[in-house]
Amino acid sequence: MRGRFITFEGGEGVGKSTQILRLADWLRERGRDVVLTREPGGTPRAEQLRRMLLERGDEPMPGSCELLLMFAARATHLDNLVRPALDRGSWVLCDRFTDATYAYQGGGRGVAESHIDALAAIVHGGFEPDLTVLLDAPVETGMARAHQRNGGQGPDRFETEQHEFFERVRATYLARARRYRSRVRVVEAGGTVEAVEAAVRRLVEPMLEADR
Fold first, then answer.
1. C-alpha–C-alpha distance, residues 107 and 159, integer Å
2. pTM for this one?
3. CA–CA gap between residue 4 and residue 208 (Å, rounded)
């Protein structure tokens, strides 16, 4: 039986990493083999591209360069990790996927949606997650959490963006949730970790039942 592909989306500091780990433990308790991964990243080559995308430097990175690097990382990640894991029956939990590109490069940077559509068609065609969990919280809440998470370390290239950038990112995420209601499900991330975890489980439980 083919595995399931579940992606987690949201702005900075909404708790994606925490909830992915908790869901992975819960699924393993129910006998599922689980692969945890992230974008950009997930394979050695994709992680190299991630470092290029996140590092701060004197040379500006054009939006088109950022977009192409994102999809280059996604191409190797899908072919070398995600698809093989799904084919052997594993459940793949991924921290961000193409919805993030529409939100960050599209909404945040202003890259034309048609350009993202074209690259998505090349890299993964009609392949989409079985479920996308969109953890949503006000930008102020998320950024405060992100600052605490960094523990005094300097922000990466995205975290240095202005408040308005992240408002555009959030608005684009929510617009995609309205557009793709059957796949993208919004979970309020402002509550306790346990409350968010319970909400995520309620979304995944029908998938477990369907696989029996």
1. 15
2. 0.92
3. 10
Give the pLDDT confidence score for residue 140 in this predicted structure: 85
Using N-to-C axis directions, what is the helix angle for 16-29 and 193-210, rounded to 10°?
Answer: 40
In contact, 129 and 5? CB cutoff 8 Å: yes
Please state which of the ranges 27-41, 112-126, 152-166 shows the lowest mean pLDDT.
Answer: 152-166
End-to-end CA distance of the chain: 11
Rounded mean pLDDT of 99-125? 97
List Cβ neighbours of 78 (8 Å cut-off, separation of 6 or more). 123, 124, 127
| b/e map 87-99, b = 16+ CB within 10 Å | eeebbbbbbbbbb
As given in the structure block, the two tokens for residue 187 are 């979970």
Sign of CA dihedral 40, 70, 11, 103: negative
- How many Å apart are CA 203 and CA 146, to the nearest integer? 25
